[in-house]
Specification:
Layout lengths: L1 H4 L3 E2 L5 H8 L5 E2 L11 H4 L13 E5 L8 H10 L8 E5 L3 H14 L3 E3 L5 H9 L1 E6 L8 H9 L2 E5 L15 E3 L4 H13 L1 H18 L2 H26 L2
Helix pairs in contact: 4-5, 4-8, 7-9
């Protein structure tokens, strides 16, 4: 609250955060709401996207954060509840910490379903993982717009994202992805089931998300907005400085 009350400008990536900032005493100027990661070079990213229908993919990609905010272990609880549908699929986990690696190993031993722990990799390698995944799962108790969610949209993976991100500003729940509670494995399992059983759902969602990405996420669209934002701030501060020292 102290910080917000003393800020002249506020940059955020979720429209929901504007009112939260106001509630905490912010009285300055709200800057354009844009993804903090700066967007995606979509033309480049698509080089790493597996061709063909999304429904033909056999990988489920999981963000492996388990921390004060991350809830990757909930994903593995959900996998246990829908393991009957997972035969023939590989679960791939990136940025997994030790607790998640242990949970993944136990799950694989108990079910026979292969789990791949992706080592520290380049961004292009991770994009390739998104590009061959049918489903992407990201769970946390707090988030902005998850960059992983945005990357899943570009690469065609059907997103299952916790409701604590502002995913509702980018996907339509039940149509272009599922927005789920971060700590309810039953709801997450139901979402996984639907995403694995409904080929039309995931194929159509990929088309919708690709269109959204082209319109709102491409680096070439976001870059000029960010440049203009800084130019406007500079001009405004320069004018204020000149007036106070004249």
């Amino acid at each position: 609250r102290q910080v917000m009350q003393n800020c002249d400008y506020y940059s955020c990536e979720c429209k929901r955060d504007v009112q939260l900032a106001r509630d905490m005493g912010f009285q300055g100027r709200v800057l354009p709401v844009l993804p903090n990661a700066g967007g995606v070079n979509i033309e480049h990213a698509l080089k790493f996207r597996q061709p063909g229908l999304i429904s033909s993919r056999k990988t489920i990609l999981v963000k492996g954060y388990q921390s004060w905010a991350g809830r990757a272990l909930v994903a593995f609880q959900a996998f246990r509840l829908c393991k009957d549908l997972l035969q023939g699929y590989t679960i791939a986990v990136y940025i997994a910490n030790e607790d998640v690696k242990i949970a993944a190993s136990l799950f694989a031993q108990e079910t026979g379903i292969p789990v791949e722990i992706i080592p520290l990799s380049s961004h292009e390698d991770i994009l390739s993982q998104f590009g061959k995944a049918r489903v992407y799962i990201g769970l946390s108790i707090s988030d902005g717009i998850s960059t992983s969610l945005l990357e899943s949209m570009v690469m065609g993976a059907f997103p299952i994202q916790s409701c604590t991100a502002c995913a509702d500003e980018w996907i339509e729940d039940g149509k272009s992805g599922f927005i789920v509670p971060s700590e309810d494995p039953g709801v997450v399992a139901d979402a996984i089931r639907k995403a694995l059983k409904d080929d039309n759902l995931v194929n159509h969602a990929a088309e919708l998300n690709a269109q959204t990405a082209r319109e709102r996420l491409d680096y070439s669209i976001i870059k000029p907005q960010v440049v203009k934002m800084y130019q406007d701030i500079f001009a405004e501060r320069k004018k204020i400085f000149a007036n106070t020292h004249s």
